[in-house]
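Batch job 17 of 40 flagged for manual review because the log was empty.
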Amino acid sequence: MSRFGELLGGKTPAPAPAAPAKPDPVVVPSKPVEAIAPEPIQGIDESLDSEDGSYSTQTILESVANAKPITISVANPFANLDVMSKKELEEYGRTVGIELDRRRSRKRLVKELKEHLTNS
């Protein structure tokens, strides 16, 4: 008899129990749902509407040319750095040419970015 047989005491192990069968899925009957059309958006320039619902390239270009410009005030260019996460700081740093180590504190990352941006 082998050493393994001696460890078992000469008894053969019982076969493993069979895995339980998966139950059949339960099907719950449901009522059909009606699709609700969205309400039209108010304030859209009605001159852009065409009869078939599409817009010509000329109409789109004219509406873009007549659009009001957006003014962005940049009082403090570093204001956004104070609210960014470490991952966002790392990604932004790569766009401006610096590789940051996320293992450092967020405060340290902000400081390194500000130094890099002021020296660039």
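Reviewer: the log was empty due to a logging misconfiguration, but the result itself is present. Residues 77-120 form one domain. Unflagging and moving on to job 18.
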